[in-house]
Amino acid sequence: MNRGATSGKVHTVTSIRIGLKNLSREHDTSVSFTHVDHSDVRFDDRLDVKLENIDAEYQQGKVFAEGGQGIIREGMDLNLRRLVAIKTLKPQPEDQFSRGQFIQEARVTAQLSHPAIIPIYSLNSDDKDGLHLVMKLVDGKTLKDYLDQLDHEYRTSGIEQFDERKSLMYRLEIMLRVCDALDYANSRNIMHCDLKPENILIGEFRETYIMDWGIARQIEEPGYDPATWVKPNTISGTPRFLSPEAIHGEHTDQRADIYALGLILFEVVTLREAYMARTSAEVVSMIREGRIAETRHKYGFRIDPDLKAIIAKATAYNRDQRYQNVRDLAMDIRRYMGGEETTANPYHLFGRITAFAVHHKRASLLFAVACILTLLLTIGVTCYRRVSMINARHNYGLELSEAQLHSAACADYIETNIARNAQFLSSITSEFIFLYETDMDDEDGQPDSMMPVSAMKNDAKNPPASLLYSSVYQRKIDFSHFAHKTIHGEDLTGIEKRRLHVLDHLRDSIMSVFYERLPQKLAAASPAEQNEYLRLNGIPLHLLLFGFPDGQYIVYPGSGSYAPTYDPRGRHWYKTAQEGNGDFAWSKPYPGNTAAAGYLLSCNVPMLDTAGNLLGVAGFDLHLNTIIRELNSNGNTGANVLEKTLIDNSGLILLSTGARFAGAMETNKEDSLTIRFDDADLLRQFIETKYGTITRDENERRILYCVNYLPSQDWYYFEKIDITSSVPETFF
To answer: Is the overall model pTM greater than 0.90, yes or no?
Structure first.
């Protein structure tokens, strides 16, 4: 008997009338429907027997399980000094049936000598005429507890953390032991009548036992005659594991046990119940109507068709369509586990060939070798060349895919940064307009606060001490301040002060955006270290610009190197926004304040008040040399990468690592750089392809174009790569 079972149940029989509305909601306990004369199902349950007193042979210990009609405790065999399990029938006043059934369970189990049936040592009485069944003590858990534990682990940790295939094979081995034990019992003309996971015990050393033979009966009952047999008024067993013929009150045989085995196999395989219902009445109704659940694993694990077929055959509604004996069911499970053909799901021709190959590996191997040798003798050289070409083409395809993957990473970097910067500009301009319009003025137009000290006046002759020279900006800059200038060179007007006052409120937000774009390794660095990196290395986000209709110019980071005649209204970035449609506008590449500072690409937006009047233009500059430097070190690299280029949908080149763009930046004398992609046919292919690769021959070289579309700006980024050395000699 199980000492480690968590349920603590002892087999009980409870009377419940079929069809009544007060059926028990607990449908997993053994039940019997109304009263019935059990004389026709007992083997020998006479009560007039002389039993030895339990205390004379055994010392009774602590109780470890209890049910409705009995308790189970540990015991000690006083003669053999071994631990035993003692099952004691609770006092049942004037209940001769319970005593008879208890004796019947003892005698039936004692007749079954099998490794998977718990041995019975003795049947004893006591001074109060009680009944005690002494049996082997087994440490372990029921199959029900094991399946519940497995379900809990899969639910909490995920089935992918476990080897469900290996676990399933172990569970099927348990089923085979159960089948073997039941096959033995059937050979002794005994059927169990109450098979369920709760009555299957798994020991700590994987031994398996069938328990609770209390309502077992003979398969071929003495005196049974189908012509004179009378339909019983009751059915004994657990509702969830009753067969359809039992539900209909028909005479049952070993095939009813096979049906129960099929339902247990269903739970073992799927970790679900075959009949999901809240009450016993619902279960009975579902069995009567044949509404068994779909054979589907609770956690999505694939169930092989052969195993589904075995379950379907074992649980067939018509008992003539089931396995006719337990041995056939066990043989099909063994065939499935061994990869052989099952009777429940016979193979088609191809399946038979495959099975033959699996189970006759030596013969199959010899036949395959003979075929291969014949093939090699016939087309050996041709086959070798074709395989070589296929491998070369496969490797070539992998190289193209890898090149496109690296190129897409660079395109994503550009797209992400442009989107982040555009969002930043939109946020800053919205806040500026809101603060500007709500800033309280007095009657003479002066702001309600003094001009902030965080904005420094442009003064090339007397720059502030906080300015330090930057090789990236090619002038002195300060990341702690704005710089501002006017075209009149006189004291600031009230409007000009108000603009500086509003921007002073936004200074911390603007500074943080520049710091957020630093490399990850500088995230925890001090402000001084971060400023030093920005000064010496720079980031693509170069400047934040504000220009106003009266010629006032405000820039971050601060600098004092702008000429007195510098007028933002005449700059390319200002005019681009002013001439646009009110949305974000990108300029052509244009030179910075000094030639050494390199070229910039500007995104600008007009700032309009609530009445639609132009308050000014805001924008940010991207430093092309910094972007080109980062592109050269990311994506596809090497001497065979000829250029990396960003163009708009009209073919205007916005930036490029190629020699043509670099030469144009050195020789251009205009206020902007206009270089167009001069291959109209290739540009058309870019627009049609959007994402992917284009290969073509140029000047006796094989050129690969990795194309990526940037939807936020309707731009295209491509990398031009020489792949001449990677192309297979022949394509077929």
So the answer is: no
DSSP string of 272-315, one letter each residue: S-SS--SSHHHHHHHHHHT-PPP---TT-PPPPHHHHHHHHHHT
Q: Is the per-residue pLDDT at 328 higher than 90?
A: yes
Q: Which residue is associated with the tokens 């000829």?
A: 642
Q: What is the mean pLDDT of residues 524-542?
A: 88
Tell me, yes or no, whether 543 lies in a domain: no
> In the structure, what pLDDT confidence band is assigned to residue 234 with cuts at 50, 70 and 90?
confident
Torsion angle, alpha carbons of 391, 392, 394, 398, to 10:
130
> 178 and 296 in one domain?
yes
Residues 183, 187: Cα–Cα separation, whole Å = 6
Do 191 and 334 fall within a single domain? yes
Query: Would you state the pLDDT for residue 51?
Result: 86
Residue 681 burial class via C-beta count within 10 angstroms: exposed 0-12, middle 13-18, buried 19 and up = exposed
Residue 40 has pLDDT above 50, yes or no: no
CB 32 within 8 A of CB 114: no
Which residues, 6+ apart, have CB-to-CB distance to 667 below 8 Å?
none
Q: How many domains are there within the chain?
A: 2
Which residues 6+ apart lie within 8 Å of 304 measured at CB?
336
CB 458 within 8 A of CB 560: yes
Q: What are phi and psi of 25, to 5 degrees?
A: -75, -20
The CA distance from 717 to 644, in Å, is 7
Higher pLDDT pick, 645 / 438: 645
Largest Cα–Cα distance in the chain? 127
Rounded CA-CA distance 454/11 in Å is: 87
Q: Both 342 and 199 in a single domain?
A: yes
Residue 163 near residue 173 (C-beta atoms within 8 A): no
Residues 103 and 220 occupy one common structural domain: no
